[in-house]
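Pilot study result, target chain (300 residues):
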Amino acid sequence: MQTSAQGVDFKKRHEGDVLKAYRCPAGIWTVGVGLTAASGVVKPHAGMTITAAESTRLLQLALRRNYEPAVKSAMPNAKQHEFDAGVSFHFNTGAIARASWVKRWAEKNWTATRAGLLAWNKGGGRVLPGLTRRREEEFRLLRYGDYGCGAPLSPSPGLARMVVDLDLDEMEAARAAFVSLGYGVGTDITGFDVLAIRAFQRDHDLNVDGIVGRATLSTLQRVMDSRAKAKTPAAAVAAGGAETALDVGGEIDPALSWVGTVLLGAGLIWGLWLAWQYRDAIASAILPRFPKLARKLWSL
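Predicted structure:
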């Protein structure tokens, strides 16, 4: 058994489908439905674009190689919609072999199945509303064969379309991050001004579609991370280099004169490493004045 076309669409709706390669928050090139080189079916790289049809083909190939075999083993004799629900869960968690709800499903104990499935709704130690909704939809698919309408809700006029679920805290944090970077996302706290999102996407070499999904939010996270970490070495050198090399009288102790040089060198090495880790974010910052250098950094 393989994932049905409806099952593929179900996963795309929850995972997002990005047709231009982008770096995830960890800096790994990603394309399509969250596929990286580790998937074994594609090697995303800077500037890479794929078609919707190719994205579907790659997802199906990744499912057959990496996910469907485990679901077949854990859920023998599953009906098509049950199999699709299991694949969706496993694609998201990688835990089909140890999830307790699978045993309850085999017993057709639907109350316990739902409770067990809904327990997989946490990230970073807290309940995530988006995962709670996903688990609910997976249960409806598992129990009733309900794939959902699959049609994204139309946003309010002037707002970007959302293809990921953000709770109120996540929305507030994302809005504050865009504003701190100079992108006015408007006053409607339920979303983001579509023109601001398009400007952000254009400035960061993303697909300019006005849709807030994995690529846009991952890039936002990396830019904010690069800003936060860039302050660390400078603060450490300023605090350590100036104080530790001085005695109480304000004179530099000759025996400690090397400390400032070592700290400065360490700060320089840290800065170079940081620049390499966040070269895509740096490229975005210098794009207006140095477009050729920015594109070179994106290609690395």
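One observation from the pilot: The two ends are 40 Å apart (CA to CA). A full batch analysis is planned for the follow-on phase.
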